[in-house]
């Protein structure tokens, strides 16, 4: 059965608006007016309205009195809550990966680390974490982690933007892979949780420095 045109347009609008938000093209000061977004995307207002509602339900945009829809911003407490959930779920992903990863899954993680970051530690970090998620072989966990990862993009500049933190992150990734290869669920969980905790400390430092 073919997808209805209206649903197809709404899905396209959703994907494009979300892509722009996560790429930083819509910043915290940008008001997402329905008619302006529709004109920008050269789409009708109805699919754009449906897309904005869906993205608002996901928490990436917020309705503020007097301003309308804006990209969600987070205070330090919310940042702490976000990383607390990431610490739990990333730990669970690594633990499950230690139990269920195939040899090919582990080889893929190691290859990502061996290939280096090519000057883009953020992209390498994303590839590595996606590999761990996949190796956990739990679609519901993956869905939850994808949502948290997208919310993290709202924080702007990555914690890996400094060479020192990027280097420490690589060492932490090595420890995660080593524990997964050793089929040690507890060590994998602890290594992943330590990694996210260190990222939180770096994020809080960045917030203090403005």
TrEMBL record:
Give residue ranges for domain HTH gntR-type. 7-74
SMART domains reported for this sequence: FCD, HTH_GNTR
Under InterPro entries, the record lists:
GntR_C (IPR011711), TF_FadR/GntR_C (IPR008920), Tscrpt_reg_HTH_GntR (IPR000524), WH-like_DNA-bd_sf (IPR036388), WH_DNA-bd_sf (IPR036390)
- Gene Ontology MF term list: DNA binding; DNA-binding transcription factor activity
Q: What Pfam families does the entry give?
A: FCD (PF07729), GntR (PF00392)
Highest taxon of the lineage: Bacteria
Enumerate the UniProt keywords alphabetically. DNA-binding, Transcription, Transcription regulation
Protein name stated in the entry: GntR family transcriptional regulator
